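STRUCTURE:
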């Protein structure tokens, strides 16, 4: 679901909870004979019967509920990159597979403690964005240059896709923790 779908779903859920709370409270009041059902029905008929505003609001809620139901049922297709296209058909690779290739390269580097990978597709190539946490006492310019080359070469050789660029953002330097010896 997209962000605006989630926001609308949250609003609808809050309204549904409020309506359910009111209906539940009315059921409790009916059970203890606090007021009669005929009195309630007369009030509802007086306020809602024949009013076009009520129909519009009800129609809007009905359309929103159908929209949210259908948006929840739609399958989310994972983004893919085209490797090759020939007379036998096309070959695609998912961004998840490319991400796993990048993670393999970063796991082999001892200087990197943690990494997050984002992939953006261009017209004929991919851009890879890495957010890394490095170990202390590492030369960051040398490490990032080495990482850029390693990621670009490995993904291009294994997946057969062109990598436009590899951007690296060093988010943090992992802290060193001393253990207290007793």
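SEQUENCE:
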């Amino acid at each position: 679901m997209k962000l605006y779908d989630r926001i609308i779903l949250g609003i609808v859920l809050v309204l549904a909870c409020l309506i359910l709370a009111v209906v539940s409270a009315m059921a409790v009041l009916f059970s203890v004979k606090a007021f009669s059902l005929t009195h309630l029905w007369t009030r509802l008929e007086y306020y809602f019967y024949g009013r076009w505003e009520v129909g519009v609001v009800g129609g809007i809620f009905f359309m929103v509920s159908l929209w949210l139901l259908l948006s929840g049922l739609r399958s989310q297709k994972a983004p893919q990159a085209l490797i090759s296209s020939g007379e036998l058909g096309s070959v695609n690779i998912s961004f998840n597979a490319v991400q796993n290739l990048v993670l393999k390269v970063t796991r082999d580097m001892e200087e990197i403690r943690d990494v997050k990978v984002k992939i953006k597709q261009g017209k004929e190539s991919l851009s890879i964005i890495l957010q890394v946490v490095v170990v202390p006492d590492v030369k960051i310019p040398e490490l990032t240059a080495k990482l850029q080359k390693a990621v670009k070469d490995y993904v291009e050789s294994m997946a057969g896709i062109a990598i436009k660029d590899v951007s690296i953002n060093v988010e943090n330097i992992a802290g060193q923790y001393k253990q207290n010896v007793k």
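REMARK: The first strand starts at residue 80 and ends at 86.
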